Amino acid sequence: MLSVVENCFSPRTAAFFDLDKTVIAKSSTLTFSKSFYQGGLINRRAVLRTAYTQFVFMAGGADHEQMEKMRAYLSALCKGWNVQQVKEIVAETLHDLIDPIIYDEAATLIEEHHTAGRDVVIVSTSGAEVVEPIGELLGADRVVATRMVVGDDGCFTGEIEYYAYGPTKAEAVRALAVSEGYDLSRCYAYSDSATDVPMLEAVGHPHAVNPDRALRREATLRGWPILVFNRPVRLKQRLPAFSMPPRPALVAAAAVGAAAVTAGLVWYASRRRTVGAAMPG
Q1: How confident is the model over 247-256, as pLDDT tens digits?
Q2: What is the DSSP letter of 145?
Q3: Would you please indicate which residues are annotated as catalytic (active-site) residues?
């Protein structure tokens, strides 16, 4: 049970949530693969490939080499996609695809953190064009997400402008603490992946959610709480409190600039970046 509302004289606090397999039951970006196919962005073979990638992602059985191959393939897939078309596809299918896979337990935590006076920040490796609408759906206050470079023609160039992955997530959290006045020792963080240990270490109240084996081992050693989320539920089926119009999902300083989304963003390895990551302000 979370603490009562923060004292008005206390420093500000926040709860930082990873997205995929922490707040929602699947990969946020890969979930849109069928919609991208119907919109003409990818072909049937790509749909099958991303379906396999989703399976591996859910099973947690891919080794580093397999992940690198998937990242390379999917990151190249989006080159040339029209950004406005991607936005429209996500907007049209968001409720049908994402609403049913939101964990009831995560939605409850978001409610409780807001009731306690804390900001809710989604910190995801997925592209901003996917993460921002999901953040708005959830009522998040801020979003940190990966951005890709957009060319003069309004299409993705295939290059990364900012990659929200691993230690970079922790850097974004610390940057937000400075800009927003958060006391990180009193903040919360939630993730399923060992790659997010740096983000979890940055706050005073880290939590492992549906952790992979490496994170479960780390959480056990450090005495971090381990949570199990297994009840996806549509938000409109929950309590009326969550059915209120959501707060606008503000893009954190880490995500200001050209927004991006592609299947490849989820898997793009930092060492394969063709554009250096820009640190959020």
Answers
A1: 433 443 333 3
A2: E
A3: 18, 20
